[in-house]
Structures are given as C-alpha cells and as structure tokens.
Design goal:
The chain has 115 residues and is α+β, with helices and mostly antiparallel strands. The chain has a single domain, classed as hypothetical protein PF0899 fold. Helices cover 23% and strands 33% of the residues. It contains 2 helices and 6 strands; from the N terminus they run αβαβββββ. The protein has a 3-stranded mixed β-sheet with strand order 2-1-6, covered by helices on one side. The protein has a 3-stranded antiparallel β-sheet with strand order 4-3-5, with no helix packed on it. Helix 1 crosses helix 2. The mean pLDDT is 95.
Length: 115
C-alpha cells in the first residue's frame, strides 16, 4: 500500500511547514491536490494519515482532497482537453503526440492551524 508512504511524506512536509515560533501547534485541516492518475485511494490515504498522525500536531486533522483532472496538450494542433477515458489521442487532430499537463500531482496546497 503506497498510501502509507504518501501519508508519511505529507506529515513530514506539513510539520516542517509549521512556523517554529508557535507553541503546541494544532493542525485542523490539510488541503491537498491529488491527480486522477496519481493512483491514490482516498479512503486508504485517510486511514494511513490517521494512524501516522497520532501524537503529532496533525492528530485529528482532516484531509480535504481536491481531485485534479487529467489535462492533456496536443503538440501537433496545440489544443488542450480533459482526458476522461483510456485513450490519450487528440480528439481534434487524431494525433498521439501529447503532453500531460495535470493529473499525476500530489500536493499540499495549504494547512489550517487551530486558533
């Protein structure tokens, strides 16, 4: 289950992002962007996150996940579109020379601390 490794990395990054001058910080929410092709199972990630955050500033924090669509750019005709199926061929010119713009990312966009 690679979600455990992803959760570990998210926790490390989030803890490093908390300003050092805050005493006993408590994170309420971690906002994420996860691409459709990142192969992350949301339920598994949430479960792993809950386990890993025990006794950390992120304990009981909520994951707010924004799913990023797969967006592709055709290098031949310069069009962009959202891929919703298994075919990455340009629907405009039928060429297969495409570049993926979004859909594989796993990013922390922000974290929210308790008052």
């Amino acid at each position: 289950m690679h979600e455990m490794g992803i959760a570990q990395q998210l926790v490390e990054i989030a803890i490093d992002a908390i300003p050092r001058d805050i005493e006993n910080p408590k994170v309420e929410k971690l906002n994420l962007k996860i691409g459709r092709l990142a192969s992350v199972v949301e339920h598994s990630l949430t479960f792993c996150f809950e386990i890993i955050t025990k006794d950390t500033p992120l304990e009981n924090a909520r994951l707010d996940i924004d799913v990023v669509p797969v967006m592709v750019h055709c290098k031949s005709c310069d069009n962009e579109w959202e891929v919703t199926g298994p075919v990455f061929k340009c629907p405009f010119c039928e060429d297969g020379d495409v570049e993926m713009l979004t859909g594989r990312e796993i990013e922390i966009t922000s974290l929210e601390l308790a008052d």
